[in-house]
Amino acid sequence: MSIHKEVASMPRRRALQVLGATGFGMLTGGLPPVTSAAESGFATPVLPEGQSAPRLARDEAFWREVADYYDRSDEIVNLEQGYWGQMARPVLESYQQATQMVNTRNSWYARRRYPADLQESTRRVATALGVESDEIVLTRNATEAVHALLLQYRGLQPGDKILYSDIDYPSFISTMRWLEQARGVQAIRLVIPNDAGRDQLFSLYREAFLAHPQLKLALITHASNQNGLIIPVREISREARQRGIDIICDCAQSWGLVDFTLPELEVDWAGFNLHKWIGSPVGVGALYMRRGSLERVAPYPGESDPQNRSVALRVHTATSNFAANLAIPAALDFHQALGGANKEARLRYLRNLWTSEARQMSHIEVLGAGDEQSWSGIASFRLAGRNSAQDAQALQQILEQDYGIFTVARYGLESGACVRVTPQVFTAADEIGALIDAMSNLRSRV
């Protein structure tokens, strides 16, 4: 008689005892537990020995090998990799394995084993960011994390001021403006020049702090989704702390685009995406809250945390994608196999390939940064004198329909709309060359 029939004929208590003794795997066809890429034996890239990150960034043969780990479409040259990142094949396999396991084991797994597995994924994220596990809670995205901080911040009184800038994420700008009406505060908008460098960026924030002594809260975007500009968060945070200003840091685009750990930023709070540059499945983010800072942010409405010790109580994600969270270790394995510094160098190299050429074209205006410290792998451009939303939409369509290059129009900068160019580490130099050729041909459109 099979174990299934034996169990079916037993009294309930005896059946549970047998299930515990035989193991759940016998009832699920022996499904293995979800593991990281390294534990499962999934292949990850092997770095060549003795190459610095800047030198490796130019090694097209190596990055072609990396590209082989991704299932890519040849329908178009995709230079809109900032929406979310493709999973490398080892991550995709881990995600598919987790999806099958969760679907098979269902609520028994979710209520008995998943909390421990989720904690392990959280630990991996915390370790990669250089913080403690009790300072991190997983979310569905950075937007969920940052909105929790903005909406539950306890430090505002009528008459206070809050600060944001034109390079911030549009949804967060809307929330800052909503706080004006809901809390009776004044939202100050800081305009960031398109060619600002590190020193100028720090000075802009410092001057805003000096000009508005009633400031209580500032939103700082580490890497702008508009033009890829990198903000000197650590220096600004130090200045803000001296003046009693709390900082919320939006790291939605920066983790994996830029090589850093959280202690380097010196912020109390930050929101992250893992499904952009870390390469997890879509629907994975994280909220960081430094130990000792929780009392300034209320728990999620209806939750109670009298001791202000639980980061998890600052969000209420409810049922989420179990398998996506289980694939986090595999995503981190692959990211770390490539190396954060190597990824950043590669993306910056690809960005510089086209921006250096575009800056020589009188009909092209490049947006991004005034010095190398403020660059990232993302940058934007537009036709000179064409900065309306309609202009940006038309330019994006020309690139897609006439040249087979996919980009995205971005809106919200004080200087006007633009087209964002975002390669991935597997983007070939030849694909960037196609963009350069297209931009050169755009002269006839001006």
Summarize the model shown.
The chain has 446 residues and is an alpha/beta fold.
Structural write-up:
The chain is α/β, with parallel strands linked by helices and 446 residues long. It folds into 2 domains: 114-335, 3-Layer(aba) Sandwich (Aspartate Aminotransferase, domain 2); 340-445, Aspartate Aminotransferase, domain 1 (Alpha-Beta Complex), CATH 3.90.1150. It is built from 17 helices and 13 strands. The strands form 3 sheets. A 7-stranded mixed β-sheet has the order 2-8-7-6-5-3-4, with helices on both faces. The protein has a 4-stranded antiparallel β-sheet with strand order 9-10-13-12, with helices on one face. Helix 1 packs antiparallel against helix 2 (12-22), helix 10 packs parallel to helix 11 (233-242) and helix 15 runs parallel beside helix 17. Residues 1-32 have low confidence and may be disordered.
What integer value in Å does the Rg equal?
Answer: 24 Å
CATH class placement of the largest domain: Alpha Beta
Largest sheet: 7 strands, mixed
| Share of helical residues | 40-55%
Q: Name the shape in a single word.
A: globular
Structural class: alpha/beta
Order of helices and strands: HHHHHEHHEHEHEHEHEHEEHHHEEHEEEH
Average pLDDT number: 92
Q: Describe the oligomeric state of these chains in a short phrase.
A: single chain
Strand content: 5-15%
Number of domains: 2
Count the helices. How many? 17
- Give the name of the CATH architecture of the largest domain: 3-Layer(aba) Sandwich
How many beta-strand segments?
13
Terminal Cα span: 80 Å
CATH topology of the largest domain: Aspartate Aminotransferase, domain 2
Question: Ranges with pLDDT <50 over ≥5 residues?
Answer: 1-32
- The CATH superfamily of the largest domain is known as Type I PLP-dependent aspartate aminotransferase-like (Major domain)
Strand arrangement, largest sheet?
2-8-7-6-5-3-4
